[in-house]
Each structure stands twice: as structure tokens, then as C-alpha cells.
Amino acid sequence: MDDLVVGEDGRSRCGWADAAPIYRAYHDDEWGQPQHDEVRLFEKLSLEAFQAGLSWLTILRKREAFRSAFAGFELEKVAAFAPADVERLMADRGIVRNRAKIEAAVVNARAALAVPEGLSRLLWSFAPPPERRPRPRTFADLPAATPESTAMAKDLRRRGFRFVGPTTAYALMQATGMVDDHLAGCWRGSTPTATRAIAR
Q1: Number of structural domains in the chain
Q2: Residue 12, beta-bridge partner list
Q3: pLDDT tens digits, the chain, 200 residues: what are they?
Q4: Domain containing residue 40: CATH number
């Protein structure tokens, strides 16, 4: 895979965006853009956990089924899921049927509701200052985890969250614009400085 690819529209993109149309849409419209909405952050946190060991393409293709199965990822609704809901989800062929991950999503919704400052403010408190982190030039420059994602994972686990290791936390940071990992030269890099300042 090339680090950067030029599409038929003449725009340079991170090479992974060229693998499938659904990837390009995700790359152009969502990945790396600052996200502060509690529901969307919880969705990303949940989907990153479900992705562990699988292709992100698999998760994107099942995303609407996940949203339907998990009540749109509304925290209060998922937190109220009972054992019968877990069994319902285990029978849902539209999602990834992994009991530990399903149960983790329910536990994580309850843990998120217990965060006094709110999930968004908590997660964004770990975002590094953008001026300290230039955009990567190649895929080789991308870390699997960082000191910030390690600190985030540690704090989330302390609060009772599950399936939130440093790598999952870093993927969440990339997806929600807490870091800008669009390669230098990609047309879609974000400029979230002002947004980050508000979130802190």
C-alpha cells in the first residue's frame, strides 16, 4: 500500500483510504475530525473494542447493524441492557457476536455515565497539544500507542471500563481527532486547535 494515493478527483489521501469506497467515505468525512458528542464518542469507543483482532472494514460494514443493536449507542439505553439483551445481541448475525465485548459495551456505558465531568471532557483531557505533534509523513511514523493513550487506557480501566488498552485508546484518539494522523500531504488533515482548547 502506498503511503499517499491520488484519487480520480485529484486529491491526495492516506493510502488506506483507497482500499474500498467505504474506507474513502470514512476517511474523507469522519476519521480524524474532532468529535465531542458523547453518543458518537461512546460509539467509537465501543466499535474500536469490537474491532480488536478484526479488520476495521468489517466493523464499518456492520456499523448500521451495530447502531440498531445498541440503541444508537445512547448511553442511558445501553447502560440499561439486561442479560436478556446480551443474549439477543449474541443471536444478532449483523454484529460481531463476542460475549466479552458485548458485555464490555454495557459495562462501559454504565462507567461513562458515572464520569462526573462527562465522557467527552474526560477523553479529550488526554489529547496532546497539537503543536507538539506534527502530522506523520509516512505510515512508518504512526505509533501503535503513545504515552497519552497509555494514560487514557489506565484511567479508563481505573474507572471500570473494559477493552480499553493503549492501542485501542490510540485508535480512538485518531478516529475522533484528538490527534491528527492524516499523513502530511493528505487533503483531509484537521486543524482542531481551537476545538481542543474549548474541550479542556
Answers
A1: 1
A2: 6
A3: 789 999 999 999 999 999 999 999 999 999 999 999 999 999 999 999 999 889 999 999 999 999 999 999 999 999 999 999 999 999 999 999 999 999 999 999 999 999 999 999 999 999 999 877 889 999 999 999 999 999 999 999 999 999 999 999 999 999 999 999 999 999 997 544 333 333 33
A4: 1.10.340.30
Q: In 52-137, which residue ranges form alpha helices assigned H by DSSP?
A: 56-61, 63-69, 75-79, 83-90, 99-113, 119-124
Domain span including residue 27: 1-200
Active site residues: 26, 48, 56
The CA-atom distances, in angstroms, between 92 and each of 34, 97, 170, 175 are 31, 7, 28, 26
Q: Are 21 and 29 in contact (CB under 8 A)?
A: no
Task: List Cβ neighbours of 24 (8 Å cut-off, separation of 6 or more).
Answer: 7, 13, 17, 18
